[in-house]
Each structure stands twice: as structure tokens, then as C-alpha cells.
Amino acid sequence: MRGVLFDFNGTLLFDGKLQDESWHEFLEHKVGRKIDAAEYQKNMSGAANEIEALSYFMGEKLTQAQAEALEEEKEIIYRAKCLALGDNFQLAPGLPNFLDALKENKIPFNLASASVMSNINFFFEHLNLGNWFNIDYVVHKDGKIPSKPAPDMYLKAAEVIGLEVSDCVIFEDSRMGIKAAKSANAKKIIGVTSSNDAATLKNYGAFDTIPDYTDLNKILQFVLEEEN
Predict the structure, then answer these.
(1) CA–CA separation, 46 vs 52, rounded Å?
(2) Residues 6+ apart with CB under 8 A from 16
(3) 137-164, pLDDT tens digit by residue?
(4) Of all helices (H) and strands (E), which one includes residue 188?
(5) How far apart, in Å, are the Cα atoms of 93 and each of 75, 98, 152, 171, 208?
(6) Is the confidence at residue 228, as pLDDT, over 60?
(7) Per-residue model confidence as pLDDT tens digits over 63-113
(8) What residues does 171 pair with on adjacent strands?
(9) Out of 31, 58, 112, 170, which could bridge 157 as a Cys pair, Cβ 3.0 to 4.6 Å?
């Protein structure tokens, strides 16, 4: 393989619990009632997109601009929770060493993230992502490029580093992300078991799985080995 593409949330930053807590806090404040796990799972995690999810909870059909404004309110809560972690707000275990190894081996890599730009800027500021990534190359949620499970984010992330998706190993943690990678013609998808177990990720289409990035030799082998 010639390059690497990464999802971010849940893949490079294990923040699933913080995301859920932030959504619950935001939504319950907005609608003035408790939201149980089943309702949240069905109408937020299970929704096709945030406009659909927020429209359900707000009780009216929202425009994209209205949904984006509400989502930013939630992201403010999320970023505060991240900072409240102090020194525990950090990238996935072993990741800095893996990214350093990619640089040393001159393997190009990029991010394809469903995060909005305000969060991308926040991550670069507080997690030192500029040590490894070019923020101008990062593909993010901008209201223009279709979000996962559409393939567009991965197609664009590969294009800006001069590669085809089929030439890249993709690291993902979710069903929607794996579906996007497969639709973009990815040949090797590595599932990260931060929110789904190994069997589930393989069922979604992952080639193999990892719990984190601490087994550097194993993870580098996914990238360095030639395809048959």
C-alpha cells in the first residue's frame, strides 16, 4: 500500500463517550426532558444525518443552516468536556509513534473526518496534529462534500495527497465509515475497536482490527506489505 487515510473521532481520538454525553446534555436542555438510550440510539445514532436527527428532536423540519447552528452549540459543550479532561485529553494510545513512523517511511497520509471545522481547529490546537497533518489537506464536514457513508470524503482525502483510495490503508471505527471506505474502493480497511467489537467491524467489512496503535510492528505491516 502507498498511503494511509484516517477517520478521526473514534479512530484517532477515543471520544465516543464524550460525544454521547455532549449530545445528551445538549438535547435534553433543548427539549426540556430526559432522553433514554433507546430513543437516542434510534433517532441520533441511527439517523441518516444530523439534519434528520435534530429535526426529530426539535419537532420541526430544519434547514441545513439551522441544523449547523444547533450542532455548533453541541460542539461547544463537547469541546469544554474535552478540555476538562486535562492531561487525559490525548490521542489514542500509541498513535504518535505510528504517525512518526509513517513520516519516517515517507508514507503519505491524511484525515477524512465528519468533524466541523471549528472542531478540526480545536484538535490541531490542543492535540498538536500539526506535527503530522497539514490542516489545509484535511477533509471535513463543510456542508458541501457529502458525509459518510458516501465515498466522497475518502475520495477527496486521497486525491489531495496524490493517491487513489485503492492505494491506501484506511483506519475506521464505525459502520458508516467502513461503508464509505468500501464505496470509495478501499482494498484494506483496519477497524479500530473503540466503539464496536472486532467481530462487528469485520462483519461490516474490515480486513482486520486493532484496539489501539501500541503494537507498532503489526500496524506498520498493514501499510508496508504489498497487495497480492
Answers:
(1) 10
(2) 9, 10, 194, 195
(3) 999 999 889 989 999 999 999 999 999 9
(4) strand 188-192
(5) 24, 10, 29, 15, 18
(6) no
(7) 999 999 999 999 999 999 999 999 999 999 999 999 999 999 999 999 999
(8) 6, 190
(9) 112
Separation of alpha carbons 126 and 108, rounded Å: 23
**Residue 12 to residue 57: CA distance in whole angstroms:** 29
- Pairing verdict, β 188-192 and 139-141: unpaired
How far CA 160 is from CA of 103, 108, 117, 133, 134, in Å, comes to 17, 10, 17, 12, 11
CA–CA gap between residue 2 and residue 112 (Å, rounded): 17
The structure's pTM equals: 0.94
**Which grid coordinates are listed for 24?**
445528551
Q: Using the predicted structure, report yes or no on whether residue 226 has a pLDDT greater than 80.
A: no
Tracing cell 473521532 back to the chain, one arrives at: 9
Residue type for position 166: S
**pLDDT reported for residue 227:** 60
- 118 near 73, Cβ under 8 Å? no
With cut-offs at 50, 70 and 90, classify the pLDDT of residue 50.
confident
The answer for residues whose C-beta is within 8 angstroms of residue 140's C-beta and 6 or more apart is 111, 113, 114, 115, 116, 117, 120
- Helix locations, the chain, DSSP H: 16-31, 37-40, 50-58, 64-84, 95-104, 117-127, 152-159, 175-183, 198-204, 216-224
